[in-house]
Amino acid sequence: EDAVLQGRCDLCGETSDGTLQECNQLSCTFAQCDEILYHQSCLDKFLRSNKLDKSRKTGFKCPRGCGRGSAFPSPCPGRIDKSHPIYPRNETKKLKAIPVEPPKNNKKEPA
Predict the structure, then answer these.
(1) Is 95 helix (H, G, I), strand (E, B) or coil?
(2) Using CA atoms, how far apart are residues 17 and 20, in angstroms rounded to an integer?
(3) Selection from 32, 35, 33 nearest residue 7 by Cα
């Protein structure tokens, strides 16, 4: 199952992009609640506001419908049962790590 790398953080209402910022894709016990990609920083604030440790991964109330930027009219009744942290990948470091082959000698042998 592939993680969603882009979406809309339902807590702040801004675009969440896992390729650029640390995000967390949450899955909820409520059947009508789709997985949402939240900014990790927004999720940390949500957890703190509910007197939970920011390292908490599952078992807390679903944040959908709880933020000022929410697209939903009321809070979700479910609880978080899966958490998938997504960290931005540093493509430039990756490119440097790929070994570069030396150029091949294209000179023809003397006849």
Answers:
(1) helix
(2) 6
(3) 35
